[in-house]
């Protein structure tokens, strides 16, 4: 039996449309390759990256209730490829669904603000799903493995989960927040070898980088050093903010800790698309601060030997 086509209300977020355009590019390439339909929520607002609540929890809830309502209008789950967006919007959705039972007056207040702006009300009838969860839970790893045309044999991949994907929500149906395995399961389905190291589930340091820059760099440097020591050819992250910290700032991180690093950092859809046969230029791999050429060369050399 042919599986039904997957459709999502696509929330690309801010970073993928700015500093990490390659994530936006590779996510669309992945959707095209797997015949997944992404209905982009072009009217959606920034999730707030966890900072709206510093001013007002009501502000964070209202902004993201509107984002969720846009997906509800389409009767589709909201798909994000950013761990921070997943954590923030997913947590808001959990809280509002709980308040529908325990504090309906609060929901009325939120929807009152939405009504004033001519927006649909929040109904609590959709779910927030990261691209990783969509691959693991909806598309399926066995099915994904069948679509691989360029096995990533010989490539040692170290996952960097970061904070928000694992610990922002009360319920995590697709993984264990303390002992996650979903990224490593994806690596194995693609033919790559998972590398385990201390730090893969810890903070990248981005949240403190604006006021404790050196400490932030040292934190990230420890993670990169640990992955290198474990034999990783690359880091793979499901979060563009982690990518900005670990890739774009890696030269500064190396200077801060006094060590050479030079470890490529890939977005999750870039890695998957390489296994699906796409070429580096189709995935924006030339946009990275740390060259990804070593990853591509290793894949090519292994295919030549094989």
Describe the protein's architecture and organization.
The protein is of the alpha/beta class. It is 49% helix and 9% strand. The protein contains 14 helices and 8 strands. The protein has helices spanning 21-34, 52-55, 57-73, 83-102, 104-116, 131-139, 141-146, 164-167, 182-190, 213-229, 240-248, 250-257, 268-275, 293-305, and strands at 7-11, 37-40, 78-80, 128-130, 156-159, 193-195, 234-237, 265-267. Strands 2-1-3-4 form a 4-stranded parallel β-sheet, with helices on both faces. α1 (21-34) crosses α13 (268-275), α3 (57-73) crosses α4 and α3 (57-73) crosses α5. The longest helix has 20 residues, at 83-102. The protein is globular, with a radius of gyration of 19 Å. It starts with 6 loop residues before the first strand and ends with a helix. The model has no long low-confidence stretch (mean pLDDT 94).
């Amino acid at each position: 039996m042919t599986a039904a086509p997957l459709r999502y209300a696509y929330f690309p977020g801010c970073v993928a449309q700015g500093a990490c355009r390659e994530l936006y590019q590779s996510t669309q390439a992945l959707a095209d390759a797997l015949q997944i339909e992404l209905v982009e929520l072009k009217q959606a607002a920034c999730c707030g990256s966890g900072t709206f609540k510093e001013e007002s929890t009501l502000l964070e809830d209202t902004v993201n209730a509107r984002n969720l309502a846009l997906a509800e209008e389409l009767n589709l789950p909201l798909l994000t490829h950013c761990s921070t967006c997943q954590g923030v919007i997913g947590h808001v959705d959990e809280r509002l669904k709980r308040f529908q039972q325990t504090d309906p007056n609060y929901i009325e207040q939120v929807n009152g603000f939405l009504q004033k702006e001519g927006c649909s009300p929040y109904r609590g009838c959709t779910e927030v799903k990261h691209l990783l969860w969509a691959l693991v839970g909806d598309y399926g790893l066995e099915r994904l493995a069948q679509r691989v045309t360029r096995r990533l044999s010989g490539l040692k991949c170290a996952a960097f989960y970061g904070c928000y994907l694992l610990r922002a929500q009360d319920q995590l149906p697709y993984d264990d927040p303390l002992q996650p395995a979903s990224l490593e399961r994806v690596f194995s389905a693609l033919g790559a070898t998972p590398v385990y190291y201390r730090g893969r589930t810890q903070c990248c340091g981005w949240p403190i980088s604006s006021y404790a820059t050196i400490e932030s760099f040292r934190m990230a440097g420890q993670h990169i050093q640990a992955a290198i020591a474990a034999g990783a050819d690359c880091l793979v992250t499901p979060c563009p903010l982690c990518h900005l910290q670990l890739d774009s700032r890696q030269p500064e991180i190396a200077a801060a800790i006094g060590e050479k690093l030079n470890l490529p950092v890939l977005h999750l859809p870039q890695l998957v698309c390489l296994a699906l046969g796409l070429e580096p230029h189709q995935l924006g791999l030339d946009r990275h601060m740390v060259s990804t050429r070593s990853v591509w060369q290793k894949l090519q050399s292994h295919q030549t030997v094989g």
